[in-house]
Recover the amino acids of this structure.
């Protein structure tokens, strides 16, 4: 297991250019926040798909490391995302992850993405991480 | 919208051979129950994948018709299922569906499947239904 | 690796009630055939979703065992299926699998499903199998 | 239908900052090329997941517009991606899309992603686009 503070430091060191930050972690769950800037938008003023993918993936990663400890080599093997509603261009994106299973070699979780302040999810993702064997 | 009683009758008439029954419906959600018999098992005493697929699909269908009314021609366009834990051979399977979005032509929902009496899901599915245009 | 003859015998013994048969296997691929009977149909004369799921899953399993040998405990962890066209009620269903990757602990493949005699796929699936550690 | 030249111009105007370019389009298929730079890499020298997601999504979009003509408001509703092998940091990424179905309101396609020069796919995606009603 890793604490919120350990994860904040690990993410800052491992992904210094990341625009996502750890809000909460623990109990098989995590919340991450992503600042949205001009680079993240698509024509029409909506957040791009790759940015939403990224937030879902980071939320899964943080929730998983919160559970198994800092094992950086955990890698995404599958991520399936459904786009539900148009995100707001001027709001942070929040990724709320709940792990469905953490096995010996695989972990599966779901993530709901929200534009901050809106109650309805803009996207929903389910992803699988492969956990490398620990020596 | 359709009531629980309307859905019970519709399902009984439209799918008379179905082993699934409607337990709850409403508020963008549904619960269906599936009796498990010898035909539904795989070697090793676990419930077969197609049976779990079927329960997920029925739960989505019931939740959707509860919301939009009895529109039988709604059809599944995609269903993605993750198998999490071994279901129990001697327990009913429960499918608990929550719709994530009901649009004009598409609806998306998630389903957690449980062996009755166990708190941890045996599978988790996300599916999309296509809603035919209404005259 | 397992030959077509070995797989035909294994499947017959392990799943004696199965309606699917092995047509081809080898080179990271497989073809399975599924007889369609009255029990497999939905109102409107189309093949039910769970039957299509089953054929996709069997095709993946056969292709995988053809590659890694008869390791019965390989289990599906995820299967995502898109329904493309209405299958024909009076034709066998063919599942054509191509493995995309066979790793140490995970294998991933795609399956196209056809009503025999029609060139366009009725469904397309992508699935992941977990391969148990070999002593 | 839209020609390769029309799509090159449309993409350049609509997404001027995009690093992807149209290589081929037609016959329900497309090939797009993505330059990989320092910003696209993850620790360990691999291409980031969001970049692979983006290439898959662009390849689907280009193949679809090649088929239905320049209808910019087509939007991704679902994208499921499997990561198969580590992409190379110093090679362009190629996205090869084949549409599986183009219906009235939905289109579905699959995309294989390659590091240029390597025969084995680094990722495989399946995605669905929603096509807006045409006046």
């Amino acid at each position: 297991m890793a604490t919120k503070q350990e994860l904040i430091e690990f993410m800052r060191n491992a992904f210094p250019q990341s625009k996502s930050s750890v809000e909460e972690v623990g109990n098989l769950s995590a919340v991450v926040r992503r600042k949205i800037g001009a680079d993240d938008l698509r024509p029409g003023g909506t957040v791009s798909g790759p940015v939403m993918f990224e937030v879902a993936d980071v939320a899964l990663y943080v929730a998983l490391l919160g559970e198994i400890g800092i094992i950086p080599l955990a890698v995404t093997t599958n991520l399936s995302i459904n786009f539900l509603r148009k995100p707001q261009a001027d709001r942070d994106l929040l990724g709320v992850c709940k792990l469905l299973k953490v096995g010996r070699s695989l972990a599966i979780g779901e993530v709901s993405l929200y534009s901050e302040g809106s109650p309805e999810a803009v996207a929903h993702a389910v992803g699988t991480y492969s956990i490398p064997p620990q020596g």
Remarks:
- The two ends of chain A are 17 Å apart (CA to CA).
